[in-house]
Amino acid sequence: MIAKNGSDKISKIVFYDELDPNAFKSGIIVFEGKYYSKLDKILQDFDGIVIADIHTHPIGCSTQQSDSDRNHPMCRLKGHIAFIAPNYASNLLLMPKDCSAYLYEGSFQWKTLVNESFPLNITLL
Ligand SMILES: [Zn+2]
Predict the structure, then answer these.
(1) Predicted TM-score of the model (pTM)
(2) What domain count does the chain have?
C-alpha cells in the first residue's frame, strides 16, 4: 500500500506477485530481495512511499502475527503498518476491524494496534 510522499493516504496498491512472479508458489509469501528494485522503480515513478502491507491467514486461523511475520517485516521502516486479514480475505465484505494491525517499531519489535488505535491515519482512495 503506497502513499504519495508527504501523504498518509493510500493511493496505490502493488501486489506481491506483480513484483515477484513466484511470491505465492510455495503457499506462503516468499519474496526474493532482488524484486525490491521493481518496487523502487514504482515508488520513484509514483513519487510514493510504502506505508502499509496486508497479507491473509488461512480459513479458521488467527490473524495474530506468526513468528515469521514478526521476524520478516515486508518493510523495515518504523511506522510501517502490517495488516493481517482472516480467512484468505474471502469474506464478501471485509472491514478493517476484522483484520489485525501491527505497527513496526524497528528492531523487529511490533506494537499491536487495538480498537482504541483506530481510526488510523490511512485512507484508501
Ligand atoms: Zn502472517
Answers:
(1) 0.85
(2) 1
